[in-house]
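Summary for the steering committee. The consortium agreed at its last meeting that each partner would contribute one worked example illustrating the joint modelling workflow. Our contribution is presented below. We chose a case with several input lines so that the handling of multiple components could be demonstrated. No manual editing was applied between input and output; the record is shown as generated.
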Amino acid sequence: MVDTSDEWIRTRTGILERRICAPDEAASDLAAESARKALEHAKVDPQEIELLIVATVTQDTLCPATACYVQEQLGIKACAAFDLNAACTGFIYGITISKAYIQAGMCDKALVIGVDLLSRVTDYEDRATCILFGDGAGAAVVGPTDDDRGILAEYLSADGKLASLIHIPAGGSRLPASVETVQNHQHYLKMSGNEVFKVAVRILGESVNQALQKCGLKVEDLSLVIPHQANIRIIEASARRLNISLDKFYINIDKYGNTSAASVPLALDEAVRKGRVKSGDLLALVAFGGGFTWGANIIRW
Ligand code: UT7
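What follows is the complete predicted structure of the assembly.
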């Protein structure tokens, strides 16, 4: 559909494959599936969940929140449930909010899900975006700890001046859906790739450093960095800036492409299942995305 090549995509992005969900699947279906696996892994009964956060920009419907559909699919009788829109940084924002709730004594167990079906908002006639995106979901159960492990620090930020770098112009209250908006492809995600690239390289490193500073630790203390999987060259450039070996970055963009809010939890889950994360390891989760938003969590596993 577009003038591109496998060679260009591999060398410029590091992406070899993407996953696209079935036509009858929506964000809540993938989210509920990932949540079931996370609950099973954590040995937590769904009824114990008191806070359910779904980070997404591709919600099932504009209203109600996808979190409510997920609650229903999981059979949770009562819990606080809401969606969080911080684009690709959504999971980091969600983990941070869940930590704050738990620390404040407002809940005991939270479920944080990052899910996006970017294939639903991708213009497959736009070669600047269509080669990048895939669909996915990842989830984490968050609870209190009584030892020195857990979420040690976080850093969240945003800059609305950069809103136009990644946006979906139509379908909201600014430009409601019409025949014209559909004809003009305004329901698709638009991105200024080059500018995003430059901002991303600067803020990924800054986010990790800021979060480390808050808990008095250094980059040398990190066992593994789980970055948002947007472009292999962004990850490589960030590794150079942080002066951390690329071996310490978990990379799976080759298999999934950019899955937005699902990218960090997918990579974290894979890293854990592959034995790359051991008890006591120090991890940095770090992401950037539409908004512009960015942030990092430092976690003692
Ligand atoms: O999670 C959301 C955050 N998004 C991102 O992190 C995306 C960040 N940006 C990127 O990953 C990169 O900017 C892209 C992969 C989107 C583009 O790569 P680039 O190295 O920045 O390419 P470019 O836009 O500077 O374009 C270089 C050349 C141009 O041709 P000329 O002008 O040099 O002749 C483009 O027209 O590559 C051309 N080009 C393509 N060629 C083949 C752009 N896209 C394609 C394509 N296939 N898909």
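The pocket of oxa(dethia)-CoA is lined by residues 4, 8, 12-13, 88, 127-128, 131, 166, 191, 193-194, 196-197, 200, 230-231, 234, 258, 289 (CB under 6 Å). The CA atoms of residues 172 and 233 lie 33 Å apart.
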